[in-house]
## 1
Amino acid sequence: MRDSENIRAVEAAGANWMGFIFWPKSSRFVSQCPSYLPTKAKRVGVFVDQNVDEVAQKVSDYALDFVQLHGQESPEYIQNLRNLCSTGNEKPFAVIKAINVCCCADVNTYKAYQGLVDYFLFDTKAEMVGGNGTKFDWSVLEAYDGNTPFLLSGGIGPDDVKRLHTWFSSGCGSAATRCIGIDLNSRFESAPAIKDVNLLQTFIDSLTSYHHS
């Protein structure tokens, strides 16, 4: 997200968390602070192998609730980031580590970060980092046996309500019980960083109806 009016509309549609991409190579890069930032939805800053000082500055400037690390950041990097931010006056933030997935072996890379991060995000492995609009086979998440909650990502679109409901209902080992959210991005866009609010609202309403039925 980066357009103020679109941010307002998406927040009103019921988004719980909202992403701001601070990686300059992304078509969704936030180059300047929008005039409106969400007050109800939590703020997620997305970074890719960036200097910890730069990340810490964005945490402060945007009052981020979450830092999402979408590159090859090491466990040591994450510890250094936490140490740096704990010495200042920044409010506490949670760390989300993205795990790019194609097969079970990819899922198991989470183990290096267990206990260091607050959430994982399982996304589709591809040449481009994030926002590819393509899915991975969710059944590989049967390999996930960690206790850290995670977000499901990777090309989830308006036509996936029934598939998501089936996945949550049938379970996927212990994985479905650890999934606390769904990442929605490229397949709800009318342009990079601009969400189609009608599509998003319909999806949220439909998924909620399935959940309560």
Note: The chain has seven helices and nine strands.
## 2
Amino acid sequence: MLRLGAPIALTQFFIMAMGFLDTAMAGHYAAVHQAGVGLGGYVLWPTFMLLAGCTMSVTPMVAQMMGAGRGSETGRVVRQGLIVGGVGSVLAVVAVVNGGVLFAAAGVDAVTADVGERYLKAAAFGLPPVMIYMVLRHGAEGLGRTVGPMVIAALALTLNAILNYAFIYGRFGAPELGGEGCGWATAIVMWFELGAIVLLWRRRPFRATGLWQGAEPGRAQEVYIGRILKIGVPIGLSSFVSMGLYAAVGILIGGLGVVPVAAHNIAGHINWATFVAPMALGSAAGIRIGFHVGGGDLAGAARVARTAFLLSIGYAVTISVALVLARNVVVLVYSNDAAVIGVAATLILFIAVYQIFDDAQATMAGSLRGYKDTRVPMLYSVAGYWLLAFPVGLALGYGWGEIPELGVYGFWIGLSVGLAAVAVAMGLRLLSTSRNEERIAVLSR
């Protein structure tokens, strides 16, 4: 699991680091550009995760085929996933280029909103290629080939840093675009990722999947696409409701002023940086569980789920302690504004508190995907984030009734409460599914 998970963790870290570079480099250009890029990200990434998440089902489907000794058929799943990803990319572009409507509705100040809109319109040019890239990446990970995507992500991060420097500050003959430059850098990097992973899939181990063979008859295409959507849409919705909650909170905090939103952006990026390891661990567990389920070894699948959970808890405790001790130093990487630094350092305490719940639920959700159990976990996410976390955050953030107005801190308390509820529900579901042979058989069809 660690051999699979370590490259996935690094891949996720490199991807998250690109968001870190956008925030940090725009922040050192100007606080308002950092805030604008952050607000743009609250539209871009939830939309991307909703539609790209619908193709994440390719990973457990391929893994179960591999476990059943049907590796030569896995290319069919990936090929139909490309169709789903292509359609999703069109929807993503339409949603992202119109994201400015949300800024106006939330009352974000005009300058910050303008930076966010220009960032989104630039980044939208990279959505079609990155959606195709994600399908091929999910397929590679389902095959257990996780090193190649890691190398691509590392190269993409390096390219992103160079392009950010060029387009934000106007270096190497490029125009000085500030926060908008982050969007153009992101779009170019997304095209690079697609080209690199296509070359990866031309190599011999991947050619054995039959990806580049002729298309299936219409009925066979419908069957595979139907299975991809049946498993993948709940995954995409789960990703969307969690990231969408953070995005909605971020946009609402944008109405509180530049300092709160800049601090929220910083805290969010630190949270994501620590989150990549348990998320990758969940992905690795899902691959191993899918392989065991495909091979009929349900005891082995349950053993993987249990091991992944214990590893995630140990990691979470360690990170929580480190965040508390280093919070005042970490925020200096992102900003040199004293007011932003003070608020961000306090928000890191919230991250340290709910780290245990956040990491545990991420790993357990990944394990459930290995069983192809995605619909019920999606319902847990909707209920925990939007029926609990969001109302609590609004009540505390704005001070409804007799409740004191806590501003940005109130929203983060709401996030913590909802996340704890989701983690408990996911744990109970994983325990139930791993012990239910009949449910596993039904889900594997």
Note: The radius of gyration is 21 Å.
## 3
Amino acid sequence: MRTFPDDVFLFRGLSPDERNRLLAEAPPPERFEKGEIIYSAERFRRAVGVVLRGEVLVIRDAAVLNRLGAGAVFGAAALYGRETRYVTEVRAATATELLFFDEALLNVWMRRDFRIAENYIGFLSDRIRFLNGRIAAFTAGDAEGRVLVYLRQHSDENGLVTLPHGMSELSRMLDIGRTSLYRSLDTLAADGKIRREGKSIYILKTIKENAL
């Protein structure tokens, strides 16, 4: 099997040998060409997909919500539910290789090793916190408030915020124009709430402490 990413959440806490024994039970990887739809509202599988190579886009209402690279996972919303429609569209951004773990296989693994169930529950908990953060950003009022909420939630212990996909995707995520985004950053900097150093953005310490 092609080299498997080391940071897939399902296998945290498992040794390489334990992980490889599980992967030997998985179906072979599947290839998708650039632009090909992997999941849509009407056509999806009840399986978690793992990106082995390439990138996929997560799209809703024509807006790119996320770009996932090697090691990233999608499809959790398709499992253990009764919904007949999937919540987003997943499309190959490049030639992509994916591995799918369907619900039946995950059930077998979870019964065999509770660590996998714990990892899955932890992943869902993280997603709930993430989505709550997104809701907070969208309901923060004006553009400056929404940008500041996002920066607070994505800053590290030093106050540094990394924008993995740049300003264009951030403006789409927050549903504000790029001009408004840059104006908001300038306003936040002028108000002493953030500091910009090239492409790096820092939440000032006093502001970050008040957000905790």
Note: The mean pLDDT is 84.
